[in-house]
Amino acid sequence: MARETLVQKRARQLEKLRALQADIEGLEKKAAQRLGGIAVRAGLADLDLSDATLLREFRALATRLAKEPDREPAKPQPSGSAASAADAA
Fold first, then answer.
1. Among 8, 14, 39, 58, whose Cα sits 20 to 30 Å from the Cα of 86?
2. Is 80 left (phi over 0), alpha (psi -120 to 50) or beta?
3. 14-to-18, 25, 70 alpha-carbon distances in Å
4. What burial class does residue 20 get, using C-beta atoms within 10 Å of its C-beta: 0-12 exposed, 13-18 middle, 19+ buried?
5. How far apart are CA 73 and CA 87, in angstroms?
6. In this structure, is the dihedral angle defined by the CA atoms of residues 44, 50, 53 and 54, taken in order, positive or negative?
7. How much is the pTM?
8. pLDDT tens-digit profile, the chain (89 residues)
9. Rounded CA gap, 38 and 17, in Å?
10. Of the candidates 88, 83, 89, 85, which has an alpha carbon nearest to the alpha carbon of residue 34?
11. Distance CA 84, CA 9 (A)
12. Which residues have C-beta within 8 Å of that of residue 25, sequence separation ≥ 6?
């Protein structure tokens, strides 16, 4: 079997990198959809707030929650309409 050239090794590693970057983008999109949905259900979409204000308040919330030693771990949420019905109750 012929040895792999530098160009081939580089191409293989770049493909792995692109796949990992796509995985990361997918994880970030999923997190954004989750948090966005929660924000909408909480009524934030109905408020006339600037992005800067929302970002500042989200950062303050994240800081406060990170400092709470006894906060509950995230629980898996049911998917689909069952989750919406549970939130509405």
1. 58
2. left
3. 6, 16, 42
4. exposed
5. 18
6. positive
7. 0.64
8. 789 999 999 999 999 999 999 999 999 999 999 999 999 999 999 999 999 999 999 999 999 999 987 767 777 766 654 455 445 44
9. 32
10. 83
11. 48
12. none
**Amino acid found at 73:** P
Instruction: Please report the DSSP string for 6-73 in residue order.
Output: HHHHHHHHHHHHHHHHHHHHHHHHHHHHHHHHHHHHTTGGGS---HHHHHHHHHHHHHHHHH-TTPPP
**Structural tokens at position 10:** 């580089």
Give the C-alpha separation, 61 to 40, whole Å: 16
Tokens of 28: 């970030």
Residue 77 tokens, joined = 């949420």
Are residues 71 and 63 in contact, defined by beta-carbon separation less than 8 angstroms? no
